[in-house]
Amino acid sequence: MSGLPAPADMSHAALIAVLMHHGGSMDLPAEAFEADATGTADGTHHAVQLATLADGGVRLSVVARPPGPAAGIEVRDP
Q1: C-beta of residue 52 within 8 angstroms of C-beta of residue 77
Q2: 77 Cβ partners below 8 Å, 6+ apart?
Q3: pLDDT (tens digit, 9 = 90+) per residue, 5-39?
Q4: Cα(41)–Cα(61) distance, rounded to whole angstroms?
Q5: Do residues 62 and 16 lie in contact, with contact meaning Cβ atoms separated by under 8 Å?
């Protein structure tokens, strides 16, 4: 996989990729934007994880943000 965005731009890039893959829009319940859905109780946001799939595709996942200030993009190959 090449051309990954900078960690600071990953949320925006992931959002655009998901929306474009689904025709440009998705319907979500209002609860999808509540604090517990978008981050942890202490205000920490979740992290994006990319995994390269055997067919050349990419799995985009939301995972708990790693502790500390060094969080970024983690690419895991199978």
Answers
A1: yes
A2: 51, 52
A3: 776 777 788 888 888 999 999 888 888 777 666 66
A4: 20
A5: no
Helix (H/G/I), strand (E/B), else coil: 61: strand
pLDDT for residue 1 is more than 70 = no
pLDDT confidence of residue 14: 82
Amino acid at 35: A
Q: How far apart are CA 67 and CA 11, in angstroms?
A: 18
Residue 11 to residues 43, 45, 55, 70, 73, Cα–Cα distance (Å)? 16, 11, 24, 16, 10
- Gap between the Cα atoms of 49 and 5, Å rounded: 13
The pair of three-digit structure tokens given for residue 15, joined into one six-digit string: 């959002």
**Whole-structure pTM value:** 0.56
